[in-house]
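wait is this the right file?? whatever heres the structure
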């Protein structure tokens, strides 16, 4: 059984909720799944996601302001990567949880 979490202060809970809000967008998650593994420019992310350049830039700006991504300038290019090493782990945990739940739901439909 999992150990109980230490109680967080109201301020910490607010910060945690804001982080989850940033991750609550399918568009931002699609971008994050690419920058979790490698550094990418906006142009590269547009090619990988098929989102419009303005949308990718806007989402990256929100993620950067929220402290979830880091940016590095090289000449005229800005490269983005994950700023918090726990984010890929969190995404993996949630993906596996979703897969387990999906298998469970499919099994109940077959019954």
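ok assuming it is, sequence goes like this
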């Amino acid at each position: 059984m999992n150990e109980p979490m230490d109680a967080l202060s109201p301020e910490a809970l607010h910060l945690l909720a804001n982080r989850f809000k940033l991750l609550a967008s399918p568009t931002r998650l699609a971008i994050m799944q690419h920058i979790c593994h490698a550094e990418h420019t906006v142009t590269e992310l547009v090619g990988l996601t098929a989102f419009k350049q303005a949308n990718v830039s806007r989402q990256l700006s929100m993620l950067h302001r929220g402290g979830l991504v880091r940016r590095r300038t090289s000449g005229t290019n800005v490269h983005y990567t994950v700023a918090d090493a726990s984010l890929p782990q969190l995404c993996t945990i949630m993906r596996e949880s979703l897969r387990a739940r999906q298998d469970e739901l499919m099994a109940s439909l077959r019954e």
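Helices lie at 10-22, 26-35, 42-49, 53-65, 86-110. so i think its the right one actually
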